[in-house]
């Protein structure tokens, strides 16, 4: 099946019939959703659910634009602060449209803010298992090829994971190159030179070119402790660059990094939900 777009004057929704698996069962993904009114949203959502039901797929995940590499999740709680760079957003009434159609929460996430003057004091114990190095700023395509390779290894076991091609990954991330600060990108390398982890940070340019907030956007590790060392270097480097705060972005509630974020004194300012529906359940 191919992607199908449902659209009216007041609402739109894209159905990705070949979404990721949910508990080992193939699911469709509902993404790119917006509606001016709850009624308009309910109408188009009902049409899409019926279309999926007739296609024989018995699970739906949303909101998700095809996979977790792209935009997904609803904002479920917020302190009212402005959205940060690359954060999912939605109108306040849109999640209820999904709930009213029978969807329920299947995964939870949060973003937290921490003053760098506090976070930068955190120092993990020394290790000989790997060394942390900053990206040298050269060959950005090679940088993202390494990030892609590492992501595939580190995230393959995550819930709702679905692989994408390297070409599609590069098409998503290469346009970000002009915004990158090399001092916020780190690699953990084993003594033999192989990658043990990476961290990708970026200034929160949603606040403007002189933002004082750095976003810890993504990190992954294949060695115990690498993530903590990478985060420590990120915090220290961001503070040295003149940033005041760090955002620990879009962390799964059950991820080990959630505990570390709390231990470093970060305060949750936004929560997110991913929803699911079994149309015949």
Automatic annotation (TrEMBL):
Checking InterPro entries in the record gives: Acyl_CoA_acyltransferase
Please, which domain of life does this record's source organism belong to? Bacteria
Matching SUPFAM superfamilies: Acyl-CoA N-acyltransferases (Nat) (SSF55729)
- Name this polypeptide is given: N-acetyltransferase domain-containing protein
Organism from which the protein derives: Roseovarius aestuarii
